[in-house]
Amino acid sequence: MNYEAGLDAALSQLHGEGRYRTFIDIERHRGDFPRATWTRPDGTKAPITVWCGNDYLGMGQNPEVLRAMQEALVGTGAGSGGTRNISGTTRHHRALEAELADLHAKEAALLFTSAYVANDATLSTLPKLFPGLIIYSDALNHASMIEGVRRSGGGKRIFRHNDVAHLRALLQADDPALPKLIAFESIYSMDGDFGPIAQICDLAEEFGALTYIDEVHAVGMYGPRGAGVAERDGQMGRIDIINGTLAKAYGVFGGYIAASAKMVDAIRSYAPGFIFTSSLPPAVAAGAAQSVKILKTSQPLRDAQQLNARILKLRLKGLGLPIIDHGSHIVPVHVGNPVHCKMLSDMLLENHGIYAQPINFPTVPRGTERLRFTPSPLHGTAEIDALVRAMDSLWHECALNRAEASA
Fold first, then answer.
1. Fewer Cβ in 10 A, N or C end of the chain?
2. Which residue in 314, 266, 285, 380 sits closest to 65, CA to CA?
3. Residues sharing a CB contact under 8 Å with residue 372, sequence separation 6 or more, in sequence order
4. 3-state secondary structure of 404
5. pLDDT grade for 403, boundaries at 50, 70 and 90
């Protein structure tokens, strides 16, 4: 067996399709977000502005967050020393879970090493707790949710994206006596559209189903305390399990679920992805707890981010660029070709000092490739001006379509 040939063929396919991904070596500088330094492949360095990060509010640079991490690092050391069950639970983990439970008005929360692991571990474990469980999953759910549902080994039904009528039909077709769970997201980050939370909760109540919502692109960003879109819409109490991340708007690292005390107790007791994984470093937990605490009372920061997103969308639309706009903080610009998308990304970086990673298949369907911009409160007028000028210039230079994409 020629294994080298197999690797060559797999990598050549990616190159041939224009979707081979490269790492961009960037160094962020404390207190200077969203500016950073790019180390080129030849070792030379250049200043850039990061426009595709998930640190939506710049909390990874917040002095209070850094101070909390430094104090915990000096006080406890680097790692946790074990799994949560074996020496890996500290006061910092407990404090963070308490902050998260309070944030979502739930009885308890449970930390994982990432929101991916939280989704995968929780969704794959639920059929063990509820034999015969059928999971109804939105077609555009995160890969981690898809993987968790797949690994669960239980019944699954895929409903068309945000199609409540299709979901109803699937629910009606199944045995009313079987346990059910509807898994969906509050914000689908590639298009920036919102899930129909209230309508899904209505169906869940009608058919006796549990609800599971992924709020990773919404926590910290929406709602009066940053608990997400479900909080903003007054639906949080109707959700049984909330999944969130500490690595996007909170600017640190890790993932979690929030739910009833019994649900959390059962997941922590049965989920291999929790049981057999070392816990977050205490310094990370301390920083995340401080970030969650800060954003509970930081509505002006959320307002500033939303304002910058609206400004950027309006200005790009004014140029006739194909913006996908569903009213969220995500600013996708449709390109529709993986080679062109990579080329635009490279030109933005090399010629304009603007870093926006191309979004290609399998992250989005073929033919919907895009650039995805994530303005923060710290992207000022100068940064927005530079991006708009660069996009206008490149769209003209590459003779790309300026007809606006449908929202």
1. N
2. 285
3. 52, 189, 190, 330, 331, 332, 333, 356, 357, 359
4. coil
5. low
Distances (CA, A) of 394 to 94, 334, 397: 50, 14, 5
Residue 115: closest CA among 222, 293, 246: 246
Q: Please state the φ and ψ torsions of residue 27, each to the nearest 5 degrees.
A: -125, 115
pLDDT at 362: 84
The tokens 């920036």 sit on which residue?
A: 192
**Any bridge partners for residue 185, and if so which?**
214
**90 neighbors 285 (Cβ within 8 angstroms):** yes
C-alpha span between 282 and 279 (Å, rounded): 8
pLDDT digits (tens, 9 = 90+) for 177-226: 999 999 999 999 888 999 999 999 999 999 999 999 999 999 999 999 99
Read off the pTM. 0.94
- The pair of three-digit structure tokens given for residue 105, joined into one six-digit string: 């008005």
b/e per residue 341-377 (b: at least 16 CB within 10 A): bbbbbebbbeebbbbbbbbbeebbeeebbbbbbbbbb
Q: What whole-number distance in Å separates Cα of residue 314 and Cα of residue 214?
A: 28
User: Would you state the structure tokens that stand for residue 40, as one six-digit string?
Assistant: 């080129």
pLDDT over 60 (residue 376): yes
88-146 residue pLDDT tens: 999 999 999 999 999 999 999 999 999 999 999 999 999 999 999 999 999 999 999 99
Report pLDDT digits (tens) over 267-306: 999 999 999 999 999 999 999 999 999 999 999 999 999 9
Classify each residue of 205-230 as buried b or exposed e, where b means 16 or more C-beta atoms within 10 Å of its C-beta.
Answer: eebebbbbbbbbbbbbbbbebbbbbb
Measure the CA–CA gap between 290 and 96, rounded to whole angstroms.
Answer: 8
**Which residues partner with 286 through β-bridges?**
none
Query: What is the rounded distance in angstroms from the CA atom of residue 319 to the CA atom of residue 391?
Result: 9
Phi-psi domain of 228 (left: phi exceeds 0; alpha: psi -120 through 50; beta: other): left
Q: 84 CB contacts (<8 Å, ≥6 apart)?
A: 93, 111, 268, 274, 279
